Amino acid sequence: MGSYCAARRTNRQASFSGNNEYATRAFATTSCASLSEDQPKDNPVSDMLVDSFGRLHTYLRISLTERCNLRCQYCMPADGVELTPSPQLLTKTEILRCANLFVSSGVNKIRLTGGEPTIRKDIEDICLELSNLKGLKTLSMTTNGIALARKLPKLKECGLNSVNISLDTLVPAKFEFMTRRKGHEKVMDAINASIDLGFNPVNCVVMRGFNDDEICDFVELTREKPIDIRFIEFMPFDGNVWNVKKLVPYSEMLDKVMKRFTSLKRVQDHPTDTAKNFTIDGHEGRVSFITSMTEHFCAGCNRLRLLADGNFKVCLFGPSEISLRDPLRRGAEDDELKEIIGAAVKRKKASHAGMFDIAKTANRPMIHIGG
Question: Could you tell me which InterPro entries the record lists for this protein (predicted)?
Answer without folding.
Answer: Aldolase_TIM, Elp3/MiaA/NifB-like_rSAM, MoaA, MoaA-like, MoaA_NifB_PqqE_Fe-S-bd_CS, MoaA_twitch, MoCo_biosynth_MoaA/MoaC, rSAM
